[in-house]
Amino acid sequence: MTDPSRARLYEELAAESRRYLAAYTLFNQAVADHLGLHPTDVQCLSLLTAEPEPLTVKQIAGMTGLTTGSATRLVDRLERAGYVTRTPDRQDRRRVLVTPVPERVARVTALWDDLGQTWQTVFDDNSEDELKVITRHMRRANDLSRTQIERLRTMPKPG
Amino acid sequence: MTDPSRARLYEELAAESRRYLAAYTLFNQAVADHLGLHPTDVQCLSLLTAEPEPLTVKQIAGMTGLTTGSATRLVDRLERAGYVTRTPDRQDRRRVLVTPVPERVARVTALWDDLGQTWQTVFDDNSEDELKVITRHMRRANDLSRTQIERLRTMPKPG
DNA sequence: AAAAATTACTGCGCGGCGCAGCGAACTCCG
DNA sequence: CGGAGTTCGCTGCGCCGCGCAGTAATTTTT
């Protein structure tokens, strides 16, 4: 902590993190623009295709941070664009299952794959150990962010 | 590339990246909610404090992906809330320099530091070399995203 | 000196989003 | 059973961030 060279590394890392995450926001926006969708829609498709089973509107709302009302409209847009279909849940007739349409979503995943190939070149000069370091850091940050979000919600707000 | 263990690492890294970045979106939203700001505003403050010198409205527009008109309004909001000040550029009188107000931004950085203390525990078990690996990766990804965004813009759009 | 380019700002309309409220369906008890 | 309370998805409403197009001021170019 009092180690100056380490402190400098922290500082540099903090600054780089901000640019890194800002860059991601721009990237996501560019992907959405390219597909004629909104960033939220892209994230929703990403979540839908990552899950093995269809999600309910409520689950989508939770994973995107939207209200159920906004999630309904999100699904409306995706359905109108042909990316997903609504299916009533037979177990619970209040629920609506949202299923991605494979041939339509393929256009999105194809783009991801295409971009992913280029991303690989970034990692190509890293050793396996280094890749593990990076992956581990992401996983930790991911876990921590969840608890931090919860903490933010319970913290007293300024103003 | 044909190395199976390395391919697995890539796959894992890709999946983790998506969760990592999705988590960041939610985290950023939570921070913005907590401060009573918009995610874009928070990102802008993040960028401003990450840069050593004040930025122009045009530069802010570029870094956030907004048009100059929207960037003007973004600065309007931040100025009205007291987070930044506008200063005319003496070298080029068309330009307006946007400078963060330290004591006001302190409220934001205090939150970051508070959260960052916990984040530091994530880094504490990393060696200096490992920290450098992470930082370098971010820098590279940052650079690549720029070219990828350009590629997306020139790519033929589907539909 | 005139023309072109750059920078920041402003009216206008679009649309995503939260909020509050609705009906339908499910769960829990007595 | 059956009524109260809860959950789920949907809808009308208003807010406001954003892009677009145009403008004025300043700089750069010719």
TrEMBL record, chains A, B:
Signal peptide: none annotated. The lineage of its organism: Bacteria, Bacillati, Actinomycetota, Actinomycetes, Kitasatosporales. Pfam families: MarR_2. It comes from the Bacteria. SUPFAM superfamilies: Winged helix' DNA-binding domain. This is MarR family transcriptional regulator. InterPro entries: ArsR-like_HTH (IPR011991), HTH_CRP (IPR012318), HTH_MarR-typ (IPR000835), MarR/SlyA-like (IPR039422), WH-like_DNA-bd_sf (IPR036388), WH_DNA-bd_sf (IPR036390). Residues 6-143 form the HTH marR-type domain. SMART domains: HTH_CRP (SM00419), HTH_MARR (SM00347). PANTHER family: TRANSCRIPTIONAL REGULATOR, MARR FAMILY (PTHR33164), TRANSCRIPTIONAL REGULATORY PROTEIN (PTHR33164:SF106).
